[in-house]
Design goal:
Its main location: secreted. The protein has 288 residues and is an alpha+beta fold. Helix content is 15%, strand content 26%. The chain contains four helices and 14 strands. The strands form two sheets. It has a seven-stranded antiparallel sheet with strand order 6-5-2-3-4-8-7, covered by helices on one side. Strands 9-10-11-14-13-12 form a six-stranded antiparallel β-barrel. Helix 1 runs antiparallel to helix 4 (273-287).
Amino acid sequence: MRRLLVLACLVAMHGCGRPTFPPVLSRVVAGEDATPHSWPWQVSLQSDSSGRWSHVCGGSLISSEWILTAAHCINDRYNYRVELGKHSLEASEDGSIAQRPANIFSHEDYNTLLSRNDIALIKLSSPVTFSDTIQPACLPDQGLVLPHDTPCFVTGWGRLSTSGPLADILQQALLRVVGHDICSHPDWWSVLATEKMVCAGGDGVTAGCNGDSGGPLNCQNSDGSWGVHGVVSFGSGEGCNVVQKPTVFTQVSSYIGWINIYKKSNNKNETNVCFWELIYTEKVHSIK
């Protein structure tokens, strides 16, 4: 037990966006099964609206207590839980946990019609302990804009095709960033694409799909760590893979200030779960 806690502490000290099991970054065009637990910040947001817990959206763990997702994933009429550390949604897996939210904060200026400010934060009921299967992603610097053609990966348990089933195994797909000047062209997304959004894909082959909403656009930083640069927001009503209709993400770098305000004002009881558990384990061990 102590070894696991020491490992969790080493993970925490090592920083964000560095999975124990690195992703295999293939060039498979249409998406593929991810290496198990290679995106350990990916979570499944689930509701019990149908009488049983079912996947509705993705999300990203950004600290021991906070999940980043999309505002359009949140409905006040539903109860939610978050599953962390999952690879297969159907299988019972060691290292996975489920938590209910303590609070959910959708952006106060979220516009349903235009998908503006489509971002939300979920505070977990208690801090999670980082492990091989549960680790936080990095956040980008405020105001950072990804260059055109930057290679990133969308991950999630969304539909495998426009009318296909939801994935059981976590999927990953390579998407290249489409610059705002192109994405906002009348033949692409026109005025629907704002400078607070990131477009990626649009080749008619690879895209996010229903069920991927709220999940991350994972882009590798210069130091090798992974950051969540986008939150899946919307795609074409004509289908998941439409030419010149890339997947549109909320640009996380435009909301760093908003994220920090909510985290700071709601983290009064947050502790370093790793630090305290290690001390507690040492005391118990010495008594024995």
